[in-house]
Design a protein that fits this description.
There is one protein chain. This protein is an alpha+beta fold. 50% of the residues lie in helices and 18% in strands. It has 11 helices and 13 strands. The chain has helices at 10-26, 91-94, 231-255, 262-291, 296-322, 333-357, 366-383, 385-399, 406-440, 447-467, 475-513; strands spanning 33-39, 45-53, 57-68, 74-83, 112-119, 124-128, 145-147, 154-155, 161-162, 164-166, 171-179, 186-196, 209-219. The strands form 2 sheets. Strands 1, 3, 7, 8, 10, 11 and 13 form a 7-stranded antiparallel beta sheet that branches. Strand 7 and strand 8 form a beta hairpin. Helix 3 packs antiparallel against helix 4 (262-291), helix 5 (296-322) packs antiparallel against helix 6 (333-357) and helix 9 runs antiparallel to helix 11 (475-513). It is elongated, with a radius of gyration of 31 Å.
């Protein structure tokens, strides 16, 4: 529990709450060493962890305590599945009800399934043959299963493991290790299940059990999954590219310092924030790969920069789309409403990302926050398209007026149409196309989606920066400059007329006196 004194200002309290929220969730981060506790969860099957294993990779699965006080007879156990893609690794959770294994036969393609059922009478964890239900053939002897509850470990060729029982609290525990050969490399997903023998458990029926486990996964000397190994170098390289872009943008701003708008400073801050985010993300993956858990200080910095970067991105896109400082200096009510909507939504999306990244898959609200993140992020992407459409419509109306600015307005209209297409393509690639890549890519190439995301972002930044760079020949600057020149000329003409009238009045007064 955290307590904040009443004499803090509103801004200070808000900042403290954000930092305390970050600190709270950072303490839950476990990296690739998963410490899981489940208490009386009504779900029949609960995902615990997933990890891409290659040759010499292993998973150490240690159930430290399973205390069952359930009044309803139920079958408990562990399910392990292996597939060749990252998305298909959740096949058991989304397609197959392990409590009713006959449903497996209705699917043509499914991953390899290993069902370890808990026998509380014989104190054994036994392998249930799933091939009779239509599951893929899996020679588990290739997995090198080891029963670690026995001193020095004992190989298990048939998937049977020893279960220890503590007389004091009837706590059950078991410990086994899985090593894979090249023929069984894949994305491994682990589940805990509770199947009532009398059917589904109603929400009125009491459920009583406490499940605690520690899952440690490694590929050789690294705690990173097979598809995450290159990410440390990937984000370091991308950070260098973003810094080069920031340095180039800084030189452009210095060279064209007389033609700068406030939005150009915001664009520079966005690129610098992206540089920091990539470097901190690389450091985060380095600590996870080396120690199995991230360093809290670096992780907090990464989340803060990630939050700032997200807000800067959507604010910059919204302001550019509105033509702020380019074709007008005042925002309309609807445009202000868009900004007031996008900023809180981005904060919510980043909070959802922090919660997802720092919590276990087994947590009840994990799936809910994941859906919130996807929905809010798509909502923000849709919201920033409207200002671009409004600017295009405004410019189309301006071209209907036959004056000497028609050519320049047409150039500006073409510029904003290109920006609209660019934003739509960027959203499609980073929010939709990458999801399809996750489905088809082999598990060891999962890092390619991160590479695609960063390449698309760099291309988007370069094209946007080039189109809206601060130089006099740009279409948007010509119009703004001409408007300013007209205002200045109008002021000079008004001042000249005033002086002429004043001189005429003085001459008229002198003639009257004479």
């Amino acid at each position: 529990h955290y307590y904040i004194t009443n004499n803090l200002s509103t801004t200070g309290m808000t900042s403290c709450r954000v930092l305390l929220l970050l600190q709270f969730y950072i303490t839950l981060i476990c990296g690739r060493i998963h410490n899981i506790t489940i208490v009386s969860d009504r779900r029949e099957i609960i995902p615990l962890a997933n990890f891409g294993l290659t040759k010499d990779g292993f998973v150490d699965f240690y159930v430290t305590s399973l205390v069952i006080t359930d009044s309803i007879e139920a079958q408990y156990g562990i399910v392990i599945e292996s597939s060749q893609t990252q998305t298909a690794s959740q096949y058991v959770e989304t397609h197959i009800n392990i409590c009713r294994p006959h449903s497996i036969a209705s699917f043509d393609k499914h991953p390899k399934i290993l069902n370890l059922m808990l026998d509380r009478n014989d104190l054994k964890l036994k392998n249930e043959d799933m091939q009779k239900y239509g599951a893929s053939e899996w020679d588990i002897s290739q997995l090198k299963l080891t029963d670690l509850m026995i001193e020095d470990g004992k190989p298990s060729l048939d998937g049977t493991f020893t279960v220890n029982k503590t007389a004091a609290d009837n706590s059950l525990s078991f410990h086994f290790q899985i090593k894979v050969e090249p023929s069984d490399e894949g994305q491994f997903t682990f589940y805990f299940y509770r199947c009532p023998t009398a059917g589904r458990t109603s929400y009125q029926s009491p459920v009583g059990y406490v499940f605690s486990a520690t899952i440690t996964a490694k590929n050789g000397a690294s705690y990173l999954s097979a598809g995450e190994k290159p990410l440390t170098f990937l984000y370091t390289g991308m950070g260098v590219l973003y810094f080069a872009m920031f340095w180039l943008w800084l030189k452009v701003m210095i060279h064209y310092s007389d033609n700068l708008f406030k939005i150009h400073y915001l664009m520079g801050a966005l690129v610098f924030a992206k540089f920091l985010a990539c470097i901190l993300h690389a450091i985060d993956y380095y600590f996870i790969g080396s120690h199995g858990t991230p360093d809290e200080a670096w992780a907090i910095l990464w989340y803060i920069i990630h939050l700032v970067r997200g807000m800067l991105l959507f604010i910059s896109l919204a302001l550019i789309g509105m033509g702020f400082a380019f074709i007008k200096h005042v925002l309309s009510y609807n445009e202000k409403l868009i900004l007031m909507t996008v900023v809180p939504l981005q904060i919510l999306a980043n909070v959802a990302y922090i919660i997802i990244d720092s919590s276990e898959e087994a947590e009840l609200n994990y799936g809910t926050w994941k859906k919130i993140l996807i929905f809010v992020d798509l909502l923000c992407c849709g919201a920033i398209i409207f200002p671009v459409m409004w600017s295009i419509r405004h410019l189309q109306q301006a071209t209907e007026r036959s004056d000497n600015k028609t050519t320049l307005v047409l150039s500006q209209l073409k510029l904003f149409r290109h920006f609209y297409i660019l934003v739509v393509v960027y959203i499609y690639i980073t929010r939709i196309a990458l999801k399809f890549m996750e489905v088809v890519l082999p598990f060891q190439y999962a890092w390619c989606t991160n590479l695609m995301d960063e390449v698309a972002t760099i291309a988007f930044f370069l094209i946007t920066g080039w189109n809206f760079r601060p130089y006099v020949a740009n279409p948007y600057y010509k119009i703004v400059q001409e408007e300013e020149d007209e205002v200045e000329m109008g002021n000079l003409m008004t001042e000249s007329d005033t002086l002429r009238n004043r001189a005429f009045n003085e001459e008229d007064r002198d003639s009257t006196l004479a």
